[in-house]
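Title: Comparing notes on inverse folding

I've been comparing how different people in this forum approach sequence design from structure. To keep things fair, I'm posting one structure and asking everyone to reply with a full sequence. Here's the target:
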């Protein structure tokens, strides 16, 4: 086990952040509070994260000249966006520590690799199969049972690159729908067919693991989606203590098996029969952990900075219960009303254009612990 004191980067060090969205913005703000600087690398000149630091590189993830200069300018690299090309992480890792490492990134970029990994450490998921064409979809549908969900293995998010199938006759159309969204590096579409989960609710656990192996988990939270986009997170999830313990246990096991240094969000289903099935991993702070900024001693963003800088993690205990609501598109125009509400904490991301469904900000409403549910 590494000696965390020897490995710690002192305040004043520069954290390189791949990705320029709101997650990077909130991490950069957390870094600043502890006296660290964030150098943001991403393609969008007015990206939310670029706006909060004067160290920024606006460039594509494949621009090796820009990446080499970035590596020289920072002490450690982390990311806020897991679809950074794996080659980018490998390129940087040869020059400067990348945390979490390229292996974690690459594993979480592909739903098949991810589910195979989960199976290898005895973490339950729904039944799944690799599929490469409509015939494969029909065959796997017979094995897994109906209905099922067809997904691209890579680059899917917020429900994009997914199709629900009720029977074999829908295989061609479902395949065409996902093929439009995701091809791998080889240009071929590889899909994953998953048995449909009749879930009671969706939950997630955000877990941080430090360079010295210490783990902090946040309480399991309940996620409600609208049009495949997270709408609300309810803290804590309204589940039994036993289910919460199992969910947390899975999250810890995953962080350990990955030898994670950083933060990972584990998205899960609680089935009607009370089983916990892991759906997806995100190796970074997560939308369902935004409530931690206002309701916890240490936010998920501060944990990310602490972990990648080799500092001791902070306490993940919450002082309040919370409901976090995303402000999508024009919902952010309600900022005046939100600001007028006591115990409502507004966060806006500085995005100029409020397109429908775009995450413009969020609001976290706090209540005393134990008062909800
Ligand atoms: P994902 O991109 O895997 O996070 O999926 C987006 C959303 O689709 C999830 O939050 C679920 O609401 C739903 N979903 C994904 N996979 C399944 C499944 N196997 N069974 C039922 N619903 C699913």
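Reply #1:
Here's my take.
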């Amino acid at each position: 086990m590494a000696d965390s004191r020897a490995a710690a980067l002192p305040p004043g060090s520069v954290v390189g952040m791949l990705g320029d969205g709101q997650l990077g913005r909130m991490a950069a703000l957390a870094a600043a509070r502890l006296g660290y600087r964030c150098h943001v690398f991403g393609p969008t000149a007015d990206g939310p994260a670029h706006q909060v630091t004067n160290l920024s590189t606006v460039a594509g993830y494949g621009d090796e000249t820009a990446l080499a200069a970035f590596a020289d300018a920072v002490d450690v690299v982390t990311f806020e966006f897991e679809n950074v090309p794996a080659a980018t992480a490998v390129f940087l890792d040869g020059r400067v520590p990348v945390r979490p490492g390229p292996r974690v990134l690459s594993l979480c970029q592909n739903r098949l690799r991810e589910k195979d990994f989960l199976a290898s450490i005895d973490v339950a998921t729904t039944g799944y199969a690799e599929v490469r064409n409509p015939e494969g979809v029909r065959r796997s549908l017979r094995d897994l049972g109906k209905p099922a969900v067809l997904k691209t293995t890579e680059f899917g998010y917020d429900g994009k690159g997914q199709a629900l199938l009720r029977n074999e006759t829908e295989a061609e159309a479902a395949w065409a729908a996902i093929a439009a969204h995701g091809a791998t590096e080889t240009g071929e579409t590889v899909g994953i067919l998953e048995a449909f989960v009749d879930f009671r609710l969706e939950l997630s656990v955000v877990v941080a693991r430090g360079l010295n192996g210490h783990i902090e988990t946040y309480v399991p939270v309940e996620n409600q989606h609208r049009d495949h986009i997270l709408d609300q997170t309810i803290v804590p999830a309204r589940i039994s203590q036993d289910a919460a313990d199992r969910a947390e246990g899975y999250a810890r096991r995953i962080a350990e098996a990955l030898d994670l240094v950083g933060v990972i969000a584990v998205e899960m289903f609680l089935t009607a029969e009370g089983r916990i099935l892991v759906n997806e991993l995100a190796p970074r702070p997560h939308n369902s952990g935004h409530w931690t900024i206002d309701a916890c001693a240490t936010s998920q963003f501060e944990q990310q900075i602490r972990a990648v800088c080799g500092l001791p993690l902070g306490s993940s205990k919450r002082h309040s219960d919370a409901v976090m609501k995303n402000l999508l598109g024009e919902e952010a125009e309600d900022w005046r009303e939100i600001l007028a509400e006591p115990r409502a904490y507004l966060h806006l991301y500085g995005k100029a254009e409020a397109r429908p469904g775009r995450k413009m900000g969020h609001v976290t409403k706090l209540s005393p612990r134990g008062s909800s549910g």
